[in-house]
Amino acid sequence: MKLTAEDEADLEGLWEYVNEGGMNMILRYKGPTKDRNVVAKSSDCGKAPGRVDSSWLESDSRFQQAVLQPVLEGYVAFGTLVEVSQSMVERLNIEPSIQQSRRPERLSAEVRDLDTSAVGGPPSFVWGTLCPDLTYCPQGRTYELKPKLGVEDCLLPECQSLSRFTLLQCIDYPKRKRSISRYNPSALFRAIFAGDGAAVSEQLGHLRRASADPRQNNFRVLGGNACDASDTELEDLKEVLLRARGVFAKLRAFGLLAAGAAVEEAAQELYAAAGSPTQLGPEVFEEAFTHCGTVLLARLEADMDDGAATELVRRTYRDLRPQWGLALFLLGRSIQDASLVVNVRRMQPGESLPSFRALRYEEADEVGQLIGRITVIDTDIKPADRIPQYARTLRDYGSHRHVEHLRSFLKEGQNLDESLSSVQALLDRTLGSSDGALNRAYELEAMKDGDRIFHFPF
């Protein structure tokens, strides 16, 4: 899709800066239909001269539309690639209202030409993406939740019900995290499948508590601090999640494509058999889904036994063409890192439920007029050259010295929560008094009322 000069003239001056990072700037359209669109434009800090190949943008768009859209229908809103003239983007890049909102280190960013059709010729266009504004939720709340892998695939002798998320929390403390989150992804998934509201509330409480640490990014609230979310707000969020069994079943099935040590070992073998590719094109993912992926996902959705499901994946990979197996494995890793944008609001007088259903909202509480919408985001293709790293994830986690500490405390008879606290205390002592005290302060801050320290970087 290409924006005409007339389109661009109409659009200029109607953009509100939201955020930027890497090669993307996100702008919200504030024209007559201000609730409908956001454009993400490509830019760069100018650290590497020369052109950037646009093929990865087109490949990612094709992958999302051809592979994920049919499977996650009703839970995705990928948007449309558009060609924006380089001159318009350059004008936006120096627009005073935008410049004053940008971080200082981004003010030197330069627009880069992503059109490869005329290499060596004059600049042509920059790829952008027009997509629905998922943050627009009048009189409501918008949350970003990273559910992670809803499968317990870390089978340590001392504890048979550990998630890889918990092991990574231990590993990342204290260099990358100021606290060890008690959130358990598989417990959240199980609670949603069982309709257990109390268990869902418990996991949301863990996410709220952990969000006092600014380095934790699994729970965010747009326009507020996640650790300040009230019990009433979490209760409404819980009701929306309890009615989202379908999307969580799909996320679990996708995650199983890259879960368990045996599946990682199979992926390593497939990678060698495929000739160690650096990238897989969208056509490989399409072929993998056409020939086996769709059927496999359906079987994984139906099988609630994690062990049996991972064994099914391992056997399936053994009989697949190597590239197809790698495509499914990479898809599993992509969805393990995906996020959910959850819009929660109550119907207002004069509003029509059918009009909100057209925007993918679903009723969560008929009496209380509570409605919600869940959208899966961050589903980009993972590069194939990361497979050697992905295929040793659990092996590396299990041998990390912080995990060894966890295992020793579990052997002593402590439960998981006690063991995590012991790991944190042990690492604090090795840090020294000042850093250890700072980390403990974040833990205490999560349990207090008053001012909070978390900022939502949307």
Topology diagram in text:
Layout: H1 5-11, E1 15-21, E2 24-29, E3 37-42, H2 55-71, E4 80-85, H3 86-93, H4 96-99, E5 125-132, E6 140-145, E7 154-156, E8 159-162, H5 164-172, H6 185-194, H7 197-210, E9 219-221, H8 231-242, H9 245-256, H10 261-273, H11 282-302, H12 306-318, H13 322-336, E10 339-346, H14 353-357, E11 362-365, E12 370-377, H15 387-390, H16 393-399, H17 401-411, H18 416-431, H19 433-445
Antiparallel strand pairs: 1-2, 2-3, 3-5, 4-5, 6-9, 6-10, 7-8, 10-12, 11-12
Helix pairs in contact: 2-11, 6-7, 7-8, 9-11, 9-13, 10-12, 10-13, 11-13, 17-18, 18-19
Textual characterization of the structure:
By secondary structure, the protein is α+β, with helices and mostly antiparallel strands. The chain has three domains: 5-132, Phosphorylase Kinase, domain 1 (2-Layer Sandwich), CATH 3.30.200; 140-243 and 339-377 and 400-445, no CATH class; 248-336, no CATH class. The chain contains 19 helices and twelve strands. The strands form three sheets. A five-stranded antiparallel sheet has the order 1-2-3-5-4, sandwiched between helices. A hairpin with a 2-residue loop joins strand 7 and strand 8 (159-162). The longest helix has 21 residues, at 282-302. The chain is globular and about 65 Å long.
